[in-house]
Amino acid sequence: MWIQRSGARYPGGQGAGIETRHAFSFSGYYDPGNVRFGSLVACNEERLAPGAGFAEHPHRDMEIVTWVVEGELTHQDSTGARTVVRPGDVQRLSAGSGVRHTERNAGAEPLTFVQMWLMPGPGAVTDPAYEVVRGIADGTPYALERTEAVLHVRRLVNGERTALPDAPWVYAHAVRGAARIDGETLTPGDAARISTAEGLEARAEGPAELLIWEMHAESGYG
Q1: pLDDT tens, residue by residue, 183-214
Q2: How much of the chain exceeds pLDDT 90, in percent?
Q3: Distance in angstroms (rounded) separating the CA atoms of residues 24 and 87
Q4: What is the pTM of this model?
């Protein structure tokens, strides 16, 4: 298990009112030893001031999953989707052969969200697709059809325990509160990368919210 603390993320940002923290090599920050974990190739923490946003830009061959921490995210893309994503919703954009989208904070309050990019497996469907699951229930697994990956959302009360998946690659990101995994405490923005996880659990130290990726394939390029 390797822990990446929130303060060790790479800083980024694009335009006024945007603050970004990257968990992996991204854009102008490249570390050959930190380009992926399992099928996960990006986990970005984004903070957008009211009125700030990302202008229209393209993606392809990527599964993009977004979790809003606070505020409201306005999303629009070339599939025709136009939605407002709120805390508790899971947003998925399958870029496929190519898609363009915009993301912005059209509200009056600050917006914070976590965006995670995963590489699809060989032979994945190439048509772009979009989905929002509203108010996903605690513990409900969300499987990405185009990858061998499952997202588990866990909201825990003080002292509550949750089993981590037994999987070749497990990525646990602390959204709120604190949780202890194998002797290490994660606080907001921290993440644990666990290889060949087996028989592990997380225990909340106070109320906590975790995003846990269970992955059974590694990303590949070319």
Answers
A1: 999 999 999 999 999 999 999 999 999 999 99
A2: 88
A3: 24
A4: 0.95
